[in-house]
Design brief:
single chain; Alpha-Beta Plaits; six-stranded mixed β-sheet; 10 helices; 16 strands; elongated; lysine biosynthesis; cytoplasm; LysK
């Protein structure tokens, strides 16, 4: 795959895109994918581009019921990353060895590096949909597929970094109702009860820990309150989110939130559990060796957000890690961009990791 080929339609951009690369086809896939809008819920066109790449290399591939691109093969490793991006148009261009465009970092860069490595090594691959919203692709995958021997999830870590931990995610809506009365009455109405409830919950988790990763982050993301349509009651709703560190469970946080209720109730959405993988698994070890072999000192990372790896780890009992090129500080940013040499290096590392795990 890493031999240079002719390609129509790129002209001068093509020369800049593949200059000096051992992975020209992978870079062209990256350019095409970044150039194809793929906001969550609108991934169809990008999925077809990705599917065509596997078809061109004689790999079995299909698009499943929810829109995931599935290319099963050697299940010693499953490489998987997400097709969708957040909204925001960034003109796609290549300048001084850097590709600019929405998704170049989160996570089209990791996705395309994994597609290239899957073709090179013959391991399994899935491009999932909806990671930026409901993770519908990952949830469908764990319900519809057998557990692989190992998983490498694709998110930006820098080509010399490996992510082993993520906080979990819990969200829900608090709902309260009270009788409408004159504002001079001393009793709390539903709005006051909502404010008081959230204050108690936030105060409970306002603890000092060694860094954000070990802390429960509490966020109210929407507040609505006022008289009901019939004018007989006061209603209040609060949409809330919690980021849950691996030292706690989702149930621990939910129990605290419900324990602080004096009025009203909380309606929870489907949670995503936290995950913290050991640095001693065969996957982590393979990455450390591969990164050192490529000339860098490996960095083991913990992320304060949440990824599809949380979903995989919550269902599958196999070693896993998250990896991919790009600076995660550029996730969702208006200047999102990826150095193409870093993209190439990440493919080298992934190929080494897949070959090592296939031998074990």
């Amino acid at each position: 795959m890493n031999a240079g080929t002719e390609h129509d339609g790129y002209s001068e951009t093509d020369a800049d895109l593949i200059a000096g690369s051992d992975w020209p086809e992978a870079r062209r896939l990256l350019y095409d994918m970044v150039s194809t809008p793929s906001v969550s819920g609108e991934e169809t066109n990008a999925a077809e581009v990705l599917k065509a790449f596997f078809e061109a290399h004689d790999r079995e591939v299909w698009i499943d019921d929810v829109g995931n691109v599935r290319a099963p093969a050697d299940d010693s490793v499953l490489l998987t990353s997400h097709i969708d991006t957040v909204p925001g148009h960034i003109p796609v261009r290549v300048e001084d060895g850097v590709l600019w465009g929405r998704g170049s970092v989160d996570a089209t860069g990791p996705l395309c590096s994994m597609a290239a490595a899957a073709i090179e090594t013959g391991v399994s691959f899935v491009g999932v949909v909806g990671e930026e919203t409901s993770s519908r692709g990952a949830w469908h995958l764990v319900e519809d597929r057998d557990e692989p021997d190992a998983v490498v999830n694709g998110e930006p870590s820098g080509w010399d970094g490996v992510t082993l931990g993520y906080r979990g995610f819990l969200d829900g809506t608090y709902v309260s109702t009270s009788e409408l009365g004159h504002s001079s009455r001393p009793e709390d109405n539903a709005i006051q009860s909502a404010v008081a409830w959230w204050s108690r919950v936030a105060d409970f988790f306002d603890e000092e820990y060694d860094g954000v990763f070990d802390t429960v982050t509490t966020k109210p993301v929407n507040f609505d309150g006022g008289p009901s349509d019939d004018g007989l009651a006061v209603e209040a709703t609060v949409d809330v989110q919690f980021r849950v560190p691996p030292r706690l469970t989702i149930d621990d946080v939910r129990e605290v939130a419900e324990g602080e209720l004096t009025r009203g109730s909380v309606h929870w959405n489907k949670p995503i559990p936290p995950v913290m993988m050991s640095p001693r698994t065969e996957v982590a070890r393979a990455f450390r060796v591969a990164i050192r072999g490529a000339g860098a000192k490996p960095r083991l990372l913990r992320k304060t957000g949440t990824s599809d790896m949380n979903i995989f780890a919550g269902t599958w009992d196999c070693p896993m890690a998250t990896y991919g090129p790009g600076d995660s500080d550029l996730d969702h940013a208006p200047d999102e961009r990826l150095e193409l040499t870093e993209f190439d290096s990440s493919i080298d590392v992934l190929v080494d990791v897949c070959e090592t795990l296939a031998e074990d």
